[in-house]
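so my prof wants the structure for this chain in the tokens format not the other one, which i didnt know existed until like an hour ago. anyway here's the sequence
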Amino acid sequence: MFDESKLWKERFGQFTKELARYLRYIFNGHLVVVLLFLLGTGAYYYDQFVETLRPDFPAAWIMALVLGLLLTLSPIFTFFLEADKIFLLPLETKLGSYFKRSLIVSFVIQLYLLLMFLALFMPMYVQVYQESFKSFFTFLVLLAVMKVWNLLSRWQVQYHVSEQLHAFDFVARFVLNGLFVYFMLRNQFVLMVVMLVLVIGLYVYWRGQTKNRSLKWEFLIDLEEKRMTSFYRIANLFTDVPKLKDRVKRRRALDWMLNWISLRQDNTYLFLYMTAFVRAGDYLGLVLRLTIIGAIALVLVHFGIGQVLIVLIFLYLTGFQLLPLANHHQNKIWVMLYPVQDASKQKSFQQLLLAVLLFETVVFFITLMVMGAYLYSFISFGAGIAFSFYFVYGYSKIRLKKI
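here's what i got, hopefully its the right format
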């Protein structure tokens, strides 16, 4: 006999087990230290920024945009698998309790995100409007109520597959959610309730439209696969993920990065690694994002030693998250047929990794020079070069043995 409660517990258990399996690689000891440093630095400068805010600062609108977006983005974790569209399709009418549990788990996860962002914005809110932190819990309860109706509305919309309809629902709820948050922050209770009623009305409308519709199984399964793939891509930056399918994208504008490599036997792996770096996965995007974020951090931080530390931290993050590239081709049998020594493979990876780290060092050096921090720009440049060589020829050798 079919037991939906047992099925949900099994699926949720598999999900949490998979999550825990890769999170321990992501939040390794070194990364935790780096994140704590960045968190502490960010908190210090955020506190300094808040103290400079005046009453005319648009804090309510900023909070309305961010919190409104978090309310609108209401994914529902169904934990469906590819085979479910065959084996669970006949049991759709018996899955009511399964879906309720999925909605509850989705609500708890997303409420935690709302709590974190509300806590982040509260100092700004209190500073600008001279309010009390006591309103935090009232705001959280109101946001929780709004999140419930957003989740319910989103669930009803998923009975449809029209992209235009999904886009309309998203825009409509985003506007209503944003105004709800704004009126909540400005203590305009009546208008806030009107926004809530409109969102409830939207849910009632969608519910009426889905009475005679069945679940769009392929759509829901595709959403689950995309969510897990996004997580696997992040995890793949720290360890090998067998379940992740390779994505290859031709970037013609970057062909020059491959053309400069001379086609000699000892450059075989250098060409392969460079091709993977430019076209496969998200290696190139990762480097660009970390470089841009690091440059922005250097602009915001004004004390010299802190700037040097930021340079070293972002070099470490970039190098560490490029380490899985070393094993990018390990499961491809045809690569093993190449008459190339393993030493050449390691040397080629080290060449690419060193080139990336030195490029990032130069970008950070130029950023500091433009800011006028001439002394610390040269100190950071020297420290960056030294760290890059240590990371490539020292640390990476040890770390790759553990991956």
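also thought this was worth mentioning. The chain has two domains: 4-231, 252-400.
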